[in-house]
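ligand=coenzyme A
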Amino acid sequence: MSTALAKALQEWEIQEKEFQKLQETHRLYLQKLDEVSKLQKNFAASISRQRKNIKDTSQSLKKFSKGLTEEEKNAVEEVKGHIQDMPNNLFQMEAFLPKKNGIYLSLVLGSVNVNLLSKESKAEYKDEYERFKLYVTMILFLLTFMCRFFISYRVVDALLNFLLVWYYCTLTIRESILISNGSRIKGWWVIHHYISTFLSGVMLTWPDGEPYQSFRNQFLAYCLYQIVVQCLQYYYQSGCLYRLKALGERHNLDLTVEGFQSWMWRGLTFLLPFLFLGQFWQLWNSISLFRMARLPECKEWQVSMIGFCFLVLFMGNFFTTLAVVHHKRKNQGKTKML
Ligand code: COA
């Protein structure tokens, strides 16, 4: 046998052994997966049993409120105190178990599991969501800038609006996944993205003509401004995420932990004037469109529909932002008192 062939056969033997090891690892992996899935089922069943027991216990404790000695009263109060924290703890445990999707995710994705099973992967998903928003925003910036200053074709505008529809649709899906992984995104921001999808869709169908052209520049300038604000928002939100992670304070995807850091407060006060200006721009868009809709030569239904969407966006954004700021101020006040 030639030395070259002997070497090749020797290499093959090593490779075969490695392959056998790989098969063994694969078998072990499947076995562990099976164990994990059984553990998940048992764990989920125990949680629902616990929940039912807690309900029963707290109901039966209610019966023992009168005619108790001091010692018995203390014992009952102690149990009640323990019971109070339990639902929250169970909820946190459940965040690491696969669960059924809500209606929207079931419709879009079917019954695939979207629950991430570790804190790291949850935080990583959130990071990736923020990065995704930033990258698409950059592409949108380029396209909007070109439309505003260099190209004036309805077809390119349509491309921009189509990209907006796709972007907002994607956000609604990603946000639903975030929410099912414990994010505290307020319902309004998700609704905001549904309305924005609809708005961009209606913009897409608005036929070219005098009314469209008279609103076009205002709309494109608004889009550019919104993109700048979104970039600032990205730096604020990823900064919050980074700092809380570094401090080791984060639980699941909970950004507003007690003791909202002064850095975050400074970031927010810097951001707020830009946000409010953007929101009043939405109001201005809405007023301009309602005025346009009253002109006799304006026949398109899109004008008042888009005006209405901008009005709803303004109101929702404005009042939700006020509520968020009020809530954070209250929390900050509480932390100072501690
Ligand atoms: N879109 C998507 N998610 C948002 C969001 C938004 N506009 N605002 C907040 N969230 C998310 C946060 O990332 C956080 O998620 P997490 O639990 O997964 O970490 C959760 O909602 C709770 O956030 P909260 O603490 O309430 O707010 P915040 O400090 O992250 O952000 C604001 C506060 C005011 C900066 C933010 O709500 C905001 O930008 N609002 C204005 C949006 C707007 O008006 N845009 C139009 C301007 S032209």
